[in-house]
Specification:
nine-stranded antiparallel sheet; 3 helices; 276 residues
Length: 276
């Protein structure tokens, strides 16, 4: 799967460069297609016109292409042997290392860095279960997984992929969105024991502050918000859920498994903002 992620990243860069250079090319005469010239396939854009029609691309085509170029920036990539996300919308970069996710400023020399200073926070799912019978998460290697829920496509026409780590009965996943990094877990079966379903998260590089229904991670002058917990079962029934510090708790009484827990479904996720 890592190979697939690398292929996605490499091809995306190539196609973006091709599209941009094609749009920037100055209009000029084209030689007639001779017998020795290979036949063209697909839709070729040359000198700002759609091949085969002699017409300029439609507004819808142009808008769709621009949307796919923008979406491609949120596709999972492989860099230096690790999967990563780049998030232009929040000026963040996320890299999957050592069983966790390292979130840092996207550009060390950029405006955000000048305003907030450098920051790096690592988040790790550490344990899950129920009070008194918690078990280590023990998640596997990060891999490019299912399509995320945004239904956005990159320039290759492929869906944007989540990054997943699978363990015994638990899958942690992350999706990259312009409004933040979305984290979630899918539990295959009901954990043993009594009490609330509980997932614990470890953090390095930041202090933790509670703020209403969200948790604020403070790293230097940067503040990152984590909240909006939502959970549902296999029948689509919404389950009561909350976040207490870096502990997510879900009332799964009567729930049909598998159950999905998603802290960032309806709100901005990990975002960097000025310390007002």
């Amino acid at each position: 799967m890592r190979t697939n992620a690398a292929r996605i990243g490499t091809t995306t860069v190539g196609l973006v460069a091709m599209l941009l250079s094609g749009c920037a090319e100055a209009p000029g005469p084209r030689p007639a297609q001779g017998a020795d010239e290979p036949a063209k396939s697909g839709v070729d854009v040359i000198a700002g016109k759609v091949e085969g029609t002699g017409e300029a691309p439609s507004d819808n085509w142009t808008a769709s292409t621009q949307e796919r170029i923008a979406a491609s920036e949120y596709q999972v990539q492989e860099q230096a042997g690790a999967l990563s996300f780049g998030n232009r919308g929040q000026a963040l970069r996320a890299r999957f290392v050592d069983g966790g996710l390292r979130v840092e400023d996207r550009d060390a020399g950029g405006v955000l860095n000048e305003r907030l200073g450098s920051f790096a926070v690592t988040l790790t799912t550490t344990a899950w279960g129920r009070p008194g019978v918690m078990q280590p998460a023990d998640l596997g290697e990060a891999t490019a997984g299912e399509c995320d829920r945004t239904e956005r496509l990159d320039v290759r026409g492929e869906c944007l992929r989540r990054v997943e780590r699978a363990g015994d009965g638990l899958v942690e996943w992350w999706a990259n969105r312009p409004d933040g990094l979305e984290q979630g877990w899918t539990l295959a079966e009901r954990p043993r024991g009594d009490g609330l379903l509980t997932i614990e998260i470890g953090v390095q590089g930041a202090t933790v502050e509670d703020d209403s229904d969200v948790v604020v991670l403070v790293s230097g002058a940067a503040r990152m918000r984590y909240g909006g917990v939502t959970a549902w079962d296999a029948d689509g029934r919404v389950l009561a859920a909350r976040i207490d510090g870096l502990r997510v708790e879900v009332d799964d009484e009567g729930a049909s498994y598998p159950v999905t827990v998603d802290p960032l479904l309806s709100t901005a996720g990990w975002t960097a903002e000025a310390d007002q």
